[in-house]
From TrEMBL:
Coiled-coil ranges (or none): none
Natural source organism: Paracoccus thiocyanatus
Any one GO cellular component localisation term in the record: cytosol
Gene3D superfamilies: 3.40.50.450
Source species taxonomy: Bacteria, Pseudomonadati, Pseudomonadota, Alphaproteobacteria, Rhodobacterales
EC numbers for this chain: 3.2.2.4
Pfam families noted in UniProt: Lysine_decarbox
Region span, Disordered: 1-31
Biased composition (Basic and acidic residues): 1-16
Biased composition (Low complexity): 19-31
InterPro entries in alphabetical order: LOG_fam, LOG_family_nucleotidases
Protein name (database record): AMP nucleosidase
Length: 275
């Protein structure tokens, strides 16, 4: 965002008026809520009628910050918050989660490989983007950090307290109120989408992205699911096609891999579809 002295218009700017408003005489009138500048009035901004404005703000803030950083494309990593790192697998709540811990390492390695490429564009392309939380998300941000590059974390306010993982680049760590706007930011710059084993949140993100691609509302990109055994067990993809609820060609939107190297190879060999 522009510094104050770079503004091209001749009008007095909002920062000046905010500072001036803080020095006004203390009277019954200036203490009244009605007198507050609308854009500094939190009670006003949180009113039900202001929801459209809050939606717009959540869309604009990350967009402007990423534009200012020159980020042109991202590599999205969806995946379960509960999947432990291999060294913590003994504390997993189920044996299945413990067995899935090796995908933490694959996510970490994949993010490191993609970030090494990102550095060649000075962080403009192939920037790792996760949900900013623990599990697979932490692995993605950790891999980017180990490669010496930046990564994005799109956190969301949840009923239980949860801080972003410590590997997200601090000035690319965003917090959302609206799931819908958060999911838009996941996909607006997506050059590839990877999905690791996960639960409701992971599946919500996965199916919304697949629906956008299937319906032509989003350009087709590499869509890579890590863990074929997991995904074929929890979702009967072939049954959907056989039932006719999706077309056989829709199955071609998805690639299944076991390793980071396989995922990188798919991205390397990707041929964008003709418009």
């Amino acid at each position: 965002m522009k510094e104050l002295d770079e503004r091209s218009h001749p009008f007095r700017d909002s920062h000046q008026d905010v500072a001036a408003a803080q020095t006004t005489p203390d009277t019954a009138q200036t203490r009244a809520p009605a007198y507050r500048l609308a854009f500094t009035d939190t009670e006003f901004l949180l009113r039900e009628e202001l929801r459209p404005v809050r939606l717009q703000l959540e869309l604009l803030k990350p967009q402007m910050i990423m534009d200012a950083r020159g980020i042109r494309s991202t590599v999205v990593m969806f995946g379960g918050a509960r999947i432990p790192s291999p060294e913590r697998r003994d504390g997993a709540r189920t044996p299945v989660l413990a067995a899935l811990s090796h995908y933490y390492d694959e996510a970490r390695r994949f993010a490191r490989l993609m970030t090494e490429r990102s550095l060649k564009s000075y962080g403009a392309e192939d920037v790792i983007c996760t949900g900013g939380g623990p599990g697979v998300m932490e692995a993605g941000n950790l891999g980017a950090h180990e490669a010496g590059g930046a990564s994005i974390g799109l956190s969301i306010v949840l009923p239980h307290e949860q801080a972003p993982n410590s590997y997200v680049t601090p000035d690319l760590c965003f917090n959302f109120h609206y799931f819908a706007i958060r999911k838009m930011h996941f996909l607006m710059r997506a050059k590839a989408v990877t999905v690791f084993p996960g639960g409701f949140g992971t599946m919500d993100e996965m199916f919304e992205a697949l629906t956008l691609i299937q319906t032509g509302r989003m350009t087709r990109v590499p869509f890579i699911l890590f863990g074929p055994e997991f995904w074929h067990k929890v979702i009967d993809w072939q049954a959907l096609a056989e039932a006719g609820t999706i077309g056989p060609e829709d199955l071609e939107l998805i690639s299944f891999v076991e390793s980071a190297d396989e995922a990188v190879e798919i991205i390397d060999n990707w041929i964008p579809p003709c418009p």
